């Protein structure tokens, strides 16, 4: 990635933010959905859904938390409404998993290239198996992390499904 130029609409920022923006741009180029989302930098880092909601002036339910789980030793990305807690037993059963547990920070970094508190739905070294909380359908606009704790981007439930190739799921 050395020598890469930042996206023209994103100042020289962290490579994770650039990777997220490139993924958003590429997804739009493939289907022409009317323009990609733009990653935005907040004045300060937000490490929780409630902090992001406060910074953006939206309800916490409109924050799409990116939570990585260790699913039978493989990564599973769960995009859940900030108003929910994941029912790991229920989700594991619905996905046919033996074990589903919160991943360690090292596991998250290894599979996403990003740190907890800034994990984006996209921009990872390899695509992750992803489920998207059906509760996010209730919001016309949702906000997701942009690769670092200070970056976010607006999107929709349908767009999250499309750009992640995710499966809809009830996760709470």
Tell me the CATH superfamily.
YbaK/aminoacyl-tRNA synthetase-associated domain
Average pLDDT for all residues: 89
Helix content: 25-40%
Task: Write the H/E string, N to C.
Answer: HEHEEHEHEEEHE
Number of domains: 1
Q: Please, how many helices?
A: 5
Distance between the termini: 38 Å
Strand content: 15-25%
Radius of gyration, in angstroms, nearest whole number: 15 Å
> Which CATH-level-2 architecture?
Alpha-Beta Complex
Shape descriptor reads globular
CATH topology: YbaK protein
What does this 3D model show about the protein?
- The protein is built from five helices and eight strands; from the N terminus they run αβαββαβαβββαβ.
- With 172 residues, the protein is of the alpha/beta class.
- The chain has one domain (15-169): YbaK/aminoacyl-tRNA synthetase-associated domain (YbaK protein), CATH 3.90.960.
- A hairpin with a 5-residue loop joins strand 6 (142-145) and strand 7.
- It is globular and about 40 Å long.
- The N and C termini lie far apart (38 Å).
- Residues 1-7 have low confidence and may be disordered.
